[in-house]
């Protein structure tokens, strides 16, 4: 339910037709907000990217960008062309929205960008909060830095919030959809050694954090979009929890060389390395997680 103290908003969502966008749209509409999607294809309650560049930002109180091609599509070969598509689908759409906000006669109250925890350097020991440095050691960290830089606008009239998301779990897409069948067949297990950390978040909570960022007056800056218990979740923990909920064995590891063969050395770092990320500022801002622990998240998704 929408709190009585929360005014209804008109929200524009870039990349709103994807897995996270569909869930975020449901949450916002359930609270009485009006949602318009920006998409490559025209449709009801939609605006195309070309229309945005031609006519500018429609009247709205909030703007969110979720746009970006799926980096971990196992059927997509990692080459220069796809690498450029990964960059442009994130940075160019963000630049387009930032420009539209700058040029708007009546700019929105809030501008929220969802990026990734790839900003932080992989580590088995370091615990990262929103204040931790990062952003200049590999392709994905530099991508997130450039992505977040593209979102910056000089005006103080619009609050700017960046949500750095972990792996997103949900019933109708995200990380679970790509790994569930081996587990259902009893062939699941950790990736490589299983010791790398697995920063995750339920899509309900990622949508909740974005909604919180849109509604919370005075909230600005970085929020980590990971579950509180994710800081201690490893690939082995995740595999064991998946097997437990599905009542299947989960002890067959996926060798690292297979991961590298499928995804390439650059992309495979996202699966073979890991970060210990805390949602410190997210919690301090007043957000309450619906699914703070892995067992309840997987029970909800897999039941």
TrEMBL record:
Classification via InterPro entries: DUF1731 (IPR013549), Epimerase_deHydtase (IPR001509), NAD(P)-bd_dom_sf (IPR036291), SDR39U1 (IPR010099)
- The residue ranges of the NAD-dependent epimerase/dehydratase domain are 11-216
NCBIfam families this protein is in?
Answer: yfcH
Q: Which protein, by its recorded name, is this?
A: Short chain dehydrogenase/reductase family 39U member 1
Q: Which Pfam families match?
A: DUF1731, Epimerase
- Family annotation (CDD domains): SDR_a8
Q: Where is the DUF1731 domain?
A: 254-301
Q: Which gene encodes it?
A: SDR39U1
């Amino acid at each position: 339910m929408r709190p009585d103290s929360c005014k209804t908003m008109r929200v524009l969502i870039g990349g709103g037709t994807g897995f996270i966008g569909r869930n975020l749209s449901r949450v916002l509409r359930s609270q009485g907000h009006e949602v318009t999607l920006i998409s490559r294809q025209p449709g009801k309650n939609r605006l195309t990217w070309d229309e945005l560049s031609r006519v500018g930002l429609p009247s709205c109180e909030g703007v969110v960008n979720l746009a970006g091609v799926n980096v971990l599509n196992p059927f997509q070969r990692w080459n220069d062309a796809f690498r450029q598509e990964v960059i442009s689908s994130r940075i160019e759409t963000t630049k387009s929205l930032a420009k539209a906000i700058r040029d708007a006669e009546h700019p929105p109250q809030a501008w929220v960008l969802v990026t990734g925890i790839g900003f932080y350097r992989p580590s088995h020991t370091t615990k990262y909060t929103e204040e931790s440095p990062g952003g200049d050691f590999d392709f994905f960290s530099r991508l997130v830095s450039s992505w977040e830089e593209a979102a910056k606008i000089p005006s103080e009239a619009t609050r700017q919030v960046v949500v750095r998301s972990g792996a997103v779990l949900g019933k109708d897409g995200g990380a679970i959809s790509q790994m569930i069948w081996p587990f259902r067949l009893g062939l699941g297990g950790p990736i490589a050694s299983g010791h790398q950390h697995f920063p995750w978040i339920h899509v309900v909570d990622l949508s909740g954090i974005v909604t919180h960022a849109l509604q919370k007056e005075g909230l600005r800056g970085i929020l980590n979009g990971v579950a509180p218990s994710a800081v201690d979740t490893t690939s082995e923990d995740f595999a064991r929890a998946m097997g437990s909920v599905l009542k299947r064995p989960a002890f067959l590891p996926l060798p690292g060389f297979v991961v590298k063969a499928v995804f390439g050395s650059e992309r495979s770092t996202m699966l073979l390395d890991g970060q210990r990320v805390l949602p410190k500022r997210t919690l301090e801002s007043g957000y309450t997680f619906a699914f703070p622990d892995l067992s309840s998240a997987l029970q909800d998704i897999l039941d």
